[in-house]
Amino acid sequence: MKALLFTFAYALHSVAATSLPVHSDSDESVQATCSSSTFTKVLPQGASIEKVATVPQNGQYGEGAADLNYPYNPTGLPALCAVTVKVVSSNESSYRFGLFLPSSSQWTGRLLAIGNGGFGGGINWLDMGPGTHLGFATVSTDTGHNSATADVTWALNNEDTKSDWGWRAMHGSVQLAKTLTQAYYGASIKYSYYSGCSTGGRQGLKEIQTSPDTFDGALIGAAAWYTSHLNNYVVQLGMYNLPVTDPKHIPLALFSVLGAEVIRQCDGVDGVADGIVSSPELCNFDYTPIRCKGSASSNCLTDAQIVTAKKIYNDWYSSVDGRWLANGLTYSSEDQWSLYLNGTAPHAFGVEYVQNFLLNDPNWDWRTFNESLVTFAEQHDPGNPTADQVNISPFKNRGGKIIMYHGQSDGVVPTRISETYYNRTIDYFGSLQSTQDFFRLFLIPGMQHCALTTVGAPWNIGATFQPTTMATNLWSVPGFQDKQHDALLALVDWVENGNAVKQIVATSWNSLINPNSGVHAQRPLCPWPQKAKYSGAGSVNDAKNWACA
Ligand SMILES: *[C@@H]1O[C@H](CO)[C@@H](O)[C@H](O)[C@H]1NC(C)=O
Ligand SMILES: *[C@@H]1O[C@H](CO)[C@@H](O)[C@H](O)[C@H]1NC(C)=O
Ligand SMILES: *[C@@H]1O[C@H](CO)[C@@H](O)[C@H](O)[C@H]1NC(C)=O
Ligand SMILES: *[C@@H]1O[C@H](CO)[C@@H](O)[C@H](O)[C@H]1NC(C)=O
């Protein structure tokens, strides 16, 4: 079941949360009963219990189709207590969150917050499931509204709900979840973690930047952190290929022609011809072999179309003063181009963002788009979602650790945006070393947005959306639920035992989303700027024949 393939995780309230002794020794844990009264007595004013339910071993839980962005419930859960809380965030707004509390004999003393996707609202119950199998209490917020991923109409003239999506619902939900978790177990939380991709990546970075005490470790995927630039870029990107009647327009059928030629030219640049483009930045792509000799046809690009393709791969710079505005898409992202580049208008992540989020003008016409909107978005950033701060010393200084990852075939959030954030962080901390002490970036060759691959590349590291993209009852990396293969478990080991993550072995299966089909390939992912290097002997699909260098 590819439930979440297109969920596109892009995606202060004044509740007085008790401050938590994060690293205290665990008290004798005494599990309270799974009933409202356990929780109501510790809730601050403005927060109320919506529902408390006991889920039996091997049960399922969620809100089903009513939860527009997460219509699938996690199944095969361990026995747990499920709590739904509503929090009033202003006179005009409120948000909800869900909390899964495994039985006290299964609880490891850890909390795990899970991120959302796109502009969607809804408690991400599905992705709360996996953490419970590993002994985490897990929490997810609905971000203050209920909508599908590409629906931004909820934001129109709704500044408080924008703030809830931007940061407030995540912050408030996690603080309250800590209070409820400790009330339930009668014990302190020892460590708090975060895992999210796309919007989820942005949410995690935002919380680290604004509230460095919230998490001890964060797994940050394909972070859509630069809202003010990125969502405007989605309009610009779409316009490169519009209108469809213009000779410059590249039709859907040619994306795969371009993609196949990219693999033919760029795959071997990294030293191994395996169909996986691992060093797109080293490829000097030559359009000549696919350039039309005569008239346009379905297997070649005209000069006008080649100009368009170059714009898509290049970064976006100001035509006024030349300043950098956004990262372009990478070579090998072509299989996901249909999302932004196949329409008759730019994608909703761009157009609806400008209409409902930025300008509060549902009649704004994307044909009038120009780069001044980036400056406007920088200045106003409605709801404060943009997570562009690199002064994260307070998080580092209290021992916080970050694992960031990004698929190198991502056609939704450009891969280089993670490198941009990482480079800025290195500039801030003064060196790669002082950054790597607490923050490491892992690029995943051949992986698309947050999960999956079209080229058999090892992609699964047990991150949010990955097991649940395959089936509702899976968690971690099926068959490899250990810190060598699961990035969250590697993060836990780094935070709690000081074992810095030197590599993570990613996995793919013979049948894309069926782990029972047998392992297709495993390969180490390396802390940027290192890359996995093939030893030159043995199967390229076996991790032991690769090393980070
Ligand atoms: C909510 O409304 C009350 C009563 O009108 C007002 O006193 C209060 O300041 C408002 N609070 C916010 C956060 O706007
Ligand atoms: C591309 O656009 C066409 C025309 O709107 C549509 O029929 C088709 O389903 C789209 N394909 C993809 C993969 O989005
Ligand atoms: C860009 O768009 C803004 C807002 O629509 C408009 O005021 C401005 O004149 C435009 N600038 C250019 C150079 O077209
Ligand atoms: C990050 O910095 C490295 C080293 O200076 C550079 O090669 C790379 O192009 C930068 N990446 C981005 C996305 O700017």
What structural class do the secondary elements suggest?
alpha/beta
Helical amount = 25-40%
Given the structure, what is the number of helices? 15
- Compute the number of strand runs: 15
Order of helices and strands: HEEEEHEHEHEHHHEEHHHHEHHEHHEEEE
What is the rounded distance between the termini? Answer: 36 Å
Main beta sheet: strand number and arrangement? 9 strands, mixed
- Poorly predicted spans: 1-28
Q: Which strands sit side by side, in order, in the main sheet?
A: 1-2-3-5-4-6-7-10-11
Strand content: 15-25%
Ligands bound here?
2-acetamido-2-deoxy-beta-D-glucopyranose
Tell me the radius of gyration. 23 Å
Mean pLDDT: 94
Shape: globular
